[in-house]
Design goal:
Length: about 400
């Protein structure tokens, strides 16, 4: 009753006077006056107080208050925030799961990732697709890095569905505070949902936000692109709109790269080439090698730009050889003229090397030097791992 009286008084702008403790429920002001006198009632009414006003829902900030707000907390500087929802997406076989695993290890270690500063945090990696292969991925990572996986990285290999509220509650209960939760993949985390339905996607996003709120960290959804990879994340447009950050993974032949497709105050559009290096982990009873892959930075473009400019006449030989290769090149590459035929640098090095009359163990080196010289002189254009006739 006291709570109801306060709410009514608040609505009416009135004060509340409470009966003495221990009185019966139906005991009122008239009963008090008759029993204890009008002066006692007057004293009670004189002590009436207006109920406390509720805290204001909205706070209006001025310029000084805006300047004093804490800066955006990054998990991977310029790429992923420390708190929120994010996506890492790409077509099948683009290497997105290998990239997500590599990034998860870097976050758990607090080591720089592709030259991006990383703030360490616990990571829970829910491997919902290709679970059996993750043991090999872990072994390959350790073999290539020469150290054990960080203690802060924990794998979860059991079935999990965002569409099952109890699953979300149970996973949230074991995730450390401030952690990064990687769900690989979104399709396996919501197998019965219609990704193109705004209603189904809304339910998926609400579940992801519930999981994110439980750990007050970051939930990263590994997802596929649709049939048209240029259209981005597969499914309803509300998915991309709800993301605080998004990483796009692409592949063309053996060339792979990732770039920031969305990041608040981040580095949208900058591309980072990478490659998958095969690690041999043992031999099966049948004699076949046991292998897995690890992510390595692809430095082919930097290598071409760094080598010493060539001396001698190799540039002419290489240019003649490349003219033949350019005939079957590909158009529409970033940075190249619209109709320019482009070829990958590594393919150009291999092709040109065969034309050089030098020792076999120096052919690739001399071909790379010649291409570097041609790029430096402006004979060839170069961008993001591709070259063309300038």
């Amino acid at each position: 009753m006291e709570k109801s009286a306060a709410e009514i008084a608040q609505a009416l702008g009135a004060a509340v006077a409470y009966m003495p403790q221990g009185e019966e429920n139906n005991f009122d002001a008239n009963d008090l006056a008759q029993r204890d006198g009008a002066d006692v009632l007057a004293e009670l009414l004189g002590a009436a107080r207006e109920p406390a006003k509720p805290a204001q829902r909205y706070k209006l900030l001025g310029a000084d208050e805006l300047r004093n707000l804490p800066p955006l907390a990054w998990r991977v500087r310029g790429v992923l925030p420390a708190v929120g929802l994010a996506a890492l997406y790409g077509p099948s076989a683009s290497g997105k799961s290998f990239l997500a695993f590599d990034m998860a290890a870097a976050i758990a270690e607090g080591r720089r990732w592709f030259d991006c500063r990383v703030e360490a945090a616990p990571v829970v990696y829910a491997a919902l697709e290709g679970e059996a292969g993750f043991k090999l991925r872990a072994q390959a990572w350790e073999a290539s890095r020469g150290r054990a996986l960080p203690n802060g990285l924990r794998m979860m290999l059991q079935p999990f569905k965002l569409t099952e509220p109890q699953d979300v509650i149970d996973l949230g209960a074991v995730v450390p505070a401030g952690a990064v939760v990687v769900l690989d993949t979104l399709n396996r985390a919501a197998p019965t949902a219609d990704e193109n339905s705004s209603r189904d996607m809304g339910e998926i996003l609400e579940a992801a936000k519930t999981l994110q709120a439980a750990c007050n960290g970051l939930v990263l959804l590994v997802h596929h692109t649709g049939k048209n990879a240029a259209a981005g994340l597969r499914g309803h447009s509300s998915l991309f709109a709800a993301m605080d950050a998004a990483i796009e993974v692409s592949r063309e032949g053996d060339r792979r790269e990732w770039k920031v497709a969305k990041s608040k105050d981040g580095m949208d559009g900058e591309a980072f080439p990478f490659k998958l290096q095969v690690e041999t982990l043992g031999v099966e009873a049948t004699g076949e090698a046991i292998t897995s892959c690890v992510v390595m930075r692809d430095t082919a473009v930097e290598d071409v730009k760094r080598v010493k400019l060539p001396q001698g006449g190799n540039q002419k030989i290489v240019l003649t050889a490349l003219r033949t290769l350019f005939k079957d090149g590909t158009t529409g590459k970033p940075g190249a003229p619209p109709l320019a035929k482009c070829v990958e640098i590594e393919a150009a090095v291999t092709f040109a090397a065969s034309a050089l009359l030098v020792a076999p163990d120096r052919k690739a080196e001399r071909a790379r030097e010649a291409i570097t010289g041609l790029v430096a002189r402006g004979v060839l254009g170069c961008n993001e791992g591709w070259i063309w006739m300038a």
